[in-house]
């Protein structure tokens, strides 16, 4: 079973996250396979636009906590953080060659790491009632990257609230805050994404790609600046992070956080 399914419908490629038994949680392997699928789309001569969505009950529950957040201290030191070697999600859309646009079409839940992936896509069409959450806040990790991406999209004051509280927010709230482009009725989010894709591909491909390339360059620069500023904190070594990760894995509420 492919972790990411690749299907082309004329000029539109449908990329499907296919780990439904784990709510499409991003393991190192899934990040790697999505990177391969995005590269395949980027160099597919017949493809002009892609739609990214998730199989099953949710777009994605975020990072695979059991693999990426319960690593040993030695592993964190060797890898420079929770991500595996060569599987940093921030690289997925910024290593393109042809700069074709990608539409995210989330439904169900979009948590943690997957919030970043959705926000990094060029256009977003969410199913009504989709719930987003920056889980890094409650897990003892910084939410600076997510604040930056939401701010980049024009999220205004809502951006700070979402980043500091780590609360769930809906597709409808995200649309009101200018974080996403469209909200689709239940069960119609892929159809709505296809309609938006059809509007995009009416235009000359090179002019579309020029705009995509420039937007992603600015987005990537902002993300790299944030990561450069926050990397020395190494919050994944904190006691609070370790307690939050263990509590999640053990399906219990975390104990009192200590600020260390």
What does this structure look like?
It holds the Pfam family ECH_1. With 260 residues, the chain is α/β, with parallel strands linked by helices. It has one domain (4-187, 202-249): Alpha-Beta Complex (2-enoyl-CoA Hydratase, Chain A, domain 1). It has helices spanning 28-42, 65-69, 73-79, 113-120, 144-152, 157-165, 171-176, 189-200, 205-230, 239-249, and strands spanning 4-9, 12-17, 49-54, 102-104, 109-111, 123-127, 131-133, 169-170, 182-184. The strands form two sheets. A six-stranded mixed β-sheet has the order 1-2-3-4-6-9, sandwiched between helices. A three-stranded mixed β-sheet has the order 5-7-8. Strand 1 and strand 2 form a beta hairpin. The protein is globular and about 55 Å long. It starts with a strand and ends in an 11-residue tail after the last helix.
Number of helices: 10
- Count of spatially separate domains: 1
**How does CATH name the architecture?**
Alpha-Beta Complex
CATH fold-level label: 2-enoyl-CoA Hydratase, Chain A, domain 1
**Overall pLDDT metric:** 90
Largest sheet: 6 strands, mixed
Helix content: 40-55%
Computed Rg = 18 Å
**Unreliably modeled segments:** none
Quote the beta fraction.
Answer: 5-15%
How many E-type strands?
Answer: 9
Q: Tell me the name of the CATH homologous superfamily.
A: 2-enoyl-CoA Hydratase, Chain A, domain 1
Distance N terminus to C terminus? 42 Å
Shape: globular
Strand order of the largest sheet: 1-2-3-4-6-9
CATH class assignment: Alpha Beta
Q: What structural class is derived from the secondary structure elements?
A: alpha/beta
């Amino acid at each position: 079973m492919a972790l990411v399914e690749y299907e082309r419908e004329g000029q539109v490629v449908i990329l499907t996250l296919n780990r439904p038994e784990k709510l499409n949680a991003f393991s190192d392997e899934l990040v790697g396979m999505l990177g391969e699928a995005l590269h395949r789309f980027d160099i597919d001569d017949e493809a002009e636009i892609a739609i990214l969505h998730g199989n099953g009950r949710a777009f994605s529950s975020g990072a695979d906590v059991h693999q990426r957040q319960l690593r040993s201290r030695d592993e964190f030191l060797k890898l420079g953080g929770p991500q595996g070697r060569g599987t940093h999600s921030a690289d997925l859309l910024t290593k393109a060659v042809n700069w074709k646009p990608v539409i995210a079409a989330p439904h169900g839940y979009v948590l943690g790491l997957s919030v970043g992936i959705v926000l990094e896509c060029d256009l977003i069409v969410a199913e009504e009632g989709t719930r987003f959450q920056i889980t890094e806040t409650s897990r003892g990790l910084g939410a600076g990257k997510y604040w930056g991406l939401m701010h980049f999209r024009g999220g205004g004051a809502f951006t700070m609230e979402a980043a500091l509280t780590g609360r769930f927010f809906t597709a409808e709230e995200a649309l009101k805050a200018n974080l996403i482009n469209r909200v689709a009725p239940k069960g119609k989010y892929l159809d709505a994404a296809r309609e938006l894709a059809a509007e995009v591909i009416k235009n000359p491909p090179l002019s579309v790609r020029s705009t995509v390339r420039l937007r992603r360059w600015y987005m990537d620069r902002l993300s790299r600046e944030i990561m450069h500023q926050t990397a020395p904190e190494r919050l994944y070594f904190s006691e609070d992070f370790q307690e939050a990760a263990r509590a999640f894995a053990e399906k219990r509420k975390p104990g009192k956080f200590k600020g260390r």
